[in-house]
């Protein structure tokens, strides 16, 4: 028998599936961490979490790197902002994108909105936030990624770092954990965290579905001012093959988390069992041992005693 009540999904988006949101409170998985990624999904995250009993659903509010071009850190008009934060090898494609995009959100507006959501939900964490040097905008600034060919337009890493830094500072101010997306930007993330490594108490930070080199993880683990957790999923990490085993082994037992990273509740329980089985296999544990260890770790990461 799988200990479903102790399974903890450290990072997921099942609320994206509007037709099946009613399934979320009924999931066998004992605890799930619902990731908000844009201002227009934060209220949905809050509503779904409210419908779940006994800390089953922990809300997370943040700005995902795929959408950071939509927010400002300096006061500029629309064209000046997008011209500064977007880059492309095709200038005409960049110009078309700027024309198609809605006006960006001023810093005070999005930042205060984020802070208000976090303060209204003392159990909430900051997420999903992070850096992504591979992501490209979709035609017309669309936000539905599945099956759509991206353009050559990207958000600059400099702008991504500025927005992430503001969210990191807010997490420190409110003493909240963070769930971090990092693609092809481990060095940038490490430098940013080192820049803010002196504040106490330490901030709990999860590198979600981490796919970098196993050799980089000790650098994160040694960071002063942080308690670093690392989470893996079948959806994102299984394609790494043997490297996933090496990554799992590179994480101390007490810092290991598991996740589904699915955007639907359909199949979420199975995905969680699958990643727990992978962890158990790599460590030569029983699946119950894998579930119990990652349950204990998740509770510490979230702050549930």
Automatic annotation (TrEMBL):
Keywords: Metal-binding. The lineage of its organism: Eukaryota, Fungi, Fungi incertae sedis, Mucoromycota, Mucoromycotina. This is Cut9 interacting protein. A divalent metal cation 1 binds at residues 11, 13, 128, 261. Coiled coil: none annotated. The keyword Cell membrane does not apply. One of its GO terms (molecular function) is metal ion binding. The keyword RNA-binding does not apply. PANTHER family: CUT9-INTERACTING PROTEIN SCN1 (PTHR47345:SF1). InterPro entries: Metal_Hydrolase, Metallo-hydrolase/TatD-type, TatD-like. A divalent metal cation 2 binds at residues 181, 208. It holds the Pfam family TatD_DNase. It comes from the Eukaryota.
């Amino acid at each position: 028998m799988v200990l479903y009540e102790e399974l903890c999904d450290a990072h997921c988006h099942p609320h994206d599936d509007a037709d099946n949101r009613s399934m979320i409170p009924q999931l066998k998985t004992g605890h799930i961490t619902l990731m908000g990624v844009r201002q227009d999904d934060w209220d949905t995250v809050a509503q779904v979490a409210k419908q779940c009993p006994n800390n089953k659903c922990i809300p997370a509010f943040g700005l995902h790197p795929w959408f950071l071009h939509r927010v400002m850190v300096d006061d500029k008009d629309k064209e000046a902002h997008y011209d500064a934060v977007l880059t492309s090898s095709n200038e005409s494609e960049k110009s078309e994108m700027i024309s198609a995009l809605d006006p960006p959100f001023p810093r005070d507006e999005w930042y205060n909105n984020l802070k208000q959501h976090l303060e209204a939900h003392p159990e909430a964490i900051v997420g999903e936030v992070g850096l992504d040097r591979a992501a490209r905008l979709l035609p017309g600034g669309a936000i539905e990624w599945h099956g759509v060919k991206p353009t050559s337009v990207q958000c600059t890493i400099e702008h991504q770092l500025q927005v992430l830094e503001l969210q990191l500072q807010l997490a420190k101010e409110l003493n909240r954990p963070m769930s971090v997306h990092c693609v092809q930007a481990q060095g940038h993330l490490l430098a940013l965290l080192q820049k803010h490594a002196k504040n106490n108490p330490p901030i709990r930070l999860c590198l979600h579905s981490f796919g970098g080199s196993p050799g980089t993880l000790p650098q994160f683990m040694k960071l002063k001012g942080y308690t670093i957790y690392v989470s893996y999923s079948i959806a994102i990490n299984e394609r790494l093959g043997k490297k996933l085993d090496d990554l799992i082994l590179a994480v101390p037992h007490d810092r290991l988390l598991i996740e589904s990273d699915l955007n639907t509740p359909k199949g979420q329980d199975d995905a969680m069992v699958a990643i727990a089985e992978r962890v158990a296999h790599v460590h030569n544990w029983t699946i119950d041992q894998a579930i119990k260890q990652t349950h204990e770790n998740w509770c510490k990461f979230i702050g549930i005693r």
